[in-house]
Amino acid sequence: MLSILAAEGGSTTPALGMIISLVAMFAIMYFFMLRPQQKEQKKKAAMLSELAVGDTVLTTSGFYGTIIDLSEEDDTIIVEFGNNKNCRIPMQKAAVMAVEKPEDAV
Questions:
Q1: What is the average pLDDT across 57-62?
Q2: Which DSSP category does 51 fall into?
Q3: CA gap 38, 19 in Å, rounded
Q4: Average pLDDT, stretch 11-26?
Q5: What does each C-alpha distance from 62 to 12, 58, 59, 97 come to in angstroms?
Q6: Rounded CA separation 16/2 (Å)
Q7: Beta strands in 35-95 (DSSP E)
């Protein structure tokens, strides 16, 4: 390609400028889109790894409940919903959106 441009008397600076602008565009896309997403994934993974029995959780469906059992081998937790203590539902850890530690643990 360069030999063809040189033979025609053209210059390679427009091609170089286009390559530099593409590299700059990908760098901007990385720092504004991909990097924050990776930070959020690490933050959520850290939150899920610190789950403990007795924590109050908010699920992705909007329900608040208390963890009563953890199963490490299949990433399942059992969450108790409501005041009557009769609603216990097994769910995936990934369905937890936010965690609130009990006040007596602080």
A1: 93
A2: -
A3: 27
A4: 87
A5: 58, 6, 5, 9
A6: 11
A7: 56-59, 64-71, 76-81, 87-92
Look at residue 6 and tell me whether its pLDDT is greater than 80: no
The two beta strands, 96-100 and 87-92, are unpaired
Angular region, 54: left φ>0, alpha ψ -120 to 50, beta rest: left
pLDDT in tens, 19-34: 999 999 999 988 888 8
Q: Which two tokens stand for residue 91?
A: 């769910």
Provide the mean pLDDT of the chain.
Answer: 85
**Cα gap 22→29, rounded to integer Å:** 11
> Which strands sit side by side in the sheet containing 87-92, from one edge to the other?
87-92, 76-81, 64-71, 56-59, 96-100
